[in-house]
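Hey, I'm writing a tutorial for new members on how sequence and structure tokens pair up, and I'd like a real worked example in the thread rather than a made-up one. If someone can provide the structure for the chain below, I'll link this post from the tutorial.
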Amino acid sequence: MAGYKGSSINPKKFEKGQIKLIVAVTPLAILMLLPIIFIFCHAFKPMTELFTFPPRFFVTNPTLDNFRGLMKASQTSGIPMSRYVFNSLVVTLSDVLLSIVLSTTAGFALSKLKFRGKEALMEINNMALMFVPVAVMIPRYLVIDTLNITNNYLAHILPLLAMPVSLFLVKQFIDQIPDALIDADRWILSKGNRLAKDVTENMDKFELGIAVQKVYDFIWDEFCDWYIEMTKRRAYQSGENPESANAALYALQETLTLALKMLHPFMPFLTEEIYCTLHPEEETIMLSDWPVYNKEREFPEEEAMVERCKEMVKGVRNRRSEMNVPPSRKVTVYLASEQEAVRAVFESQKEMYAGLIGASEVFVQADQMGIAKDAVSIVIPDAVVYIPLEDLVDLEKERERLEKERKRLEKELSRSKGMLNNERFLSKAPEAKVQEEKDKLEKYEQMMEEVKKQLSALK
């Protein structure tokens, strides 16, 4: 939307792009306000208006008789009005406070923690949503009667606490809040944790060559080539999401520290200098603890997710390179997979890989609906990535380039065929030269066939 610049969710001041949102939301807000206005007007209607048909929305002759009658009725009942007010306040405040505490605690556990039976508990809560309060009045009374709390505040408090809607809504809200450490952070920490275990085992066996190769591969391939690229956007946008940026910096420092310690036996002076710069409070890397494998830092699910995304990123980058698409060119990416679990992985990791593939938008779906027929496809395990051809290339310029290439290949083919059809060339040229020309002809023919295919696809 025009009013939303950069990656900001909420603009700091009014912008034109907000007008259509205001126009869309205002009627809904008015509609939701109508029942409240009706109830308010109804309270001030005299008896003559309360039972008129058809009922009127607004009060014509407002009166306080209803409130006076209520006060008189409470006085004759033997129970003062203050008692009703006090009971209502106690029950309301108790329900609100306890609902917030219990729903938030349970919602956080069901959303962010991993334990057995979590899915079953959430399914039970979801099933309870199907029963309206009226449908469970009799079972509710039987439970209250069995607990012998019919003449107690708990008779009013417990049924409201047991309503499943608050837990459902709170969990849905917490689900949208990203963890401080995202899956990419857990992936690199898990990789480093396993590196500590493997390298220590290799060192104990004096397999120094294998140990240093593993450290080299981790630093070069996993840390520098992938993780630093994954965290750039989060670090640059620290003002918008400081928690996420701090989590990324934490994982970066933890991983670099581990890598320096692993590398220190092989490169003592360089690692000493970098380590003391990274940790000025430490005297020397030689007195620091050697990394130890920690089972709590094993994250196999997150590793599998990130590795799947890496395969997709490699495929898209390779195709962009093959088609000479500049890195600055943004493209729309469609990812289709019939497997719901695969779609869930790519949907949850959008923020991590979208920048790595130069995507302006990413759509994850089950089929090819809405995808152009001429879209470029990249096959990856359990899914296919589609990119509209017009996003990758300027069609008119690409046609011009292919036409020039076709004319150049026609000249090369004509020249090569002329030489190979020349008896003097075949009889006098060295055999290697003749073979070289045949190889050229074969290559030019393959190139011409590919150019014609591409031209045909662009028409």
